[in-house]
Amino acid sequence: MAFEGLTEKLSTTFKKLRGKGRLKESDIKEAMREVRLSLLEADVSYKVVKDFVAKVSERAIGSDVFESLTPAQTVIKIVNEELTALMGGETQKLKFASSSPTVIMLVGLQGAGKTTNGAKLAAYIKKNHGRRPLLVACDVYRPAAIKQLEVVGEQLGIPVFQQGQGNPVEIAKAALAHAKDHGNDVLLIDTAGRLHIDEALMDELRSIKEALNPTEIMLVVDAMTGQDAVNAAQAFNEELDIDGVMLTKLDGDARGGAAISVKAVTGKPIKFAGVGEKLDQIEPFHPDRMASRILGMGDIMTLIEKAEQSFDEKKAEELERKLRQNRFTLEDFLEQMDQLKNMGPIQDVIGMLPGVNAGALKGAVIDEKALPRVEAIILSMTKDERENPSILNSSRKRRIAKGSGTRVEDVNRLLKQFDMMRKMVKQMSSPQMGRKARRAARGGGAFPFM
Length: 450
What we know:
The chain contains 21 helices and 8 strands. With 450 residues, it is α/β, with parallel strands linked by helices. The protein folds into 3 domains: 4-86, SRP54, nucleotide-binding domain (Four Helix Bundle (Hemerythrin (Met), subunit A)); 102-297, 3-Layer(aba) Sandwich (Rossmann fold); 303-443, Orthogonal Bundle (434 Repressor (Amino-terminal Domain)). The two termini are 19 Å apart. The model is unreliable at 361-366 and 433-450 (pLDDT under 50).
C-alpha cells in the first residue's frame, strides 16, 4: 500500500509531539529532523525534502504554534497544508478541447503501463464525462503492443484504431480523420516507449505533437521506480512540455516518494493514479486527500465515492425498506458483502477511515478470506434457510459446513454475527435509538471481516 512506511514513521513522530503538551523550539526541531529522515527514506528528492522541512519549520517555530492551546495539532495542520501544496494543492482536471476531438497524447518509458492505463483512462472518460473515446495504436515497435491495446479496449468497450506497424505520425493523422468522421470526441494516442530516453524517441514524439497539436500530453510513470520516475518526468517535460502526470502502480509502492516529488520537480500536476491491476482501478489524484492519507488522517471523500460507485441505488432503497420492516435476511447480508467486495481490498477501505492506520491492520485485525468464507456458507444454504435461519438445527449446520468447506463453528459464528447485526439494525431503525446501538455501529463487531 502506498506510503505505508512513511505513514507509520510520521504517526510515531506526531505521537511524541502530542505527548509533550506545551512545545519548545527544540521539540519542533527534533520533530522536523524525524520528518526529514522519514521523507528521505520514502525516496522523496533531497532538494524537495530540504525545501519542505524549511517551510514547515518556518511556520511551526512561530507564535501561532506556541500560543495555541493544542500546539501539536497545529504543527500537524501545518505539515498537512504544506504536504498538500507540495503535491499540487488543488485537484487538476483533464482539459477538453473547445472543438472536438480532444487529443490526449500518452507518453512515457517502456514498462510504465501506458497501454493498459491509457485504456483505463479512456474508460474513465467514457463513464464520468459521457464522451466517446478512441484508442490509437502508435506503439509500432514493441511486440504485441497493438494486440494488447485491442484486448484491453475490447474488455472495456472502447474502440481501437490501428494500421499495423506503419509510420506512427501518419497513423496518428489518420486516426484524427477517422475520429472526426465517426463521432469520436476524445483520442488517446498510445505512443512508443523505450527502456531509457533517447533522441530518436523524442524526435518521434515531437513529430506526433506537431502533427496533432494535442490538448493534453499525459506522462505515464511507474511510481515503484521512485526517483527514476521523477527523473523521467523531468526529462519528458523539458522535451515535450507535458501537461500532467499519471502515476501507475501507486498501490504497490510502500514508499510513495515519486508522488510527493514529481510536482515539485517538474511543476506539472499529477492528474491520475493507477491504484490496482483491475481495469477500473484508476482515480483522479487529489493532493489534499493524499496528504490526509499519508498523515494517517483517513480519506472519507474517496471512501464515499467508492461506496457510491459500488452500491446499487435501487437495491439500497429496497434494503432500507427491509431494514425498517425488520426483514433483513442472509440473502440481503450476502448481497451487501458482494457490493462491499467491489470497493476493493478491505484493508484499503478501512484504511481510509480517520484515525485508522492501515499498516497496523495487517494480519491482526483484517481477515481478507472471511468474505469468501461467509459467501460459501450462505450459498450452501437452501433458500428457506437463508430467509429463516432459525430453522437451522445441528444436522443442517453440519451439511452447510461440509458443503462450504468450513467447520460448524464457522457456521455458528456467522449466525451469531448476523443475529447481532439484525438486533443492531432493529435498534438503529427505531425512533429511540440508544447509546448502546450507536456504540455497536461504531465498533463494527457485527461485521465478519473484523
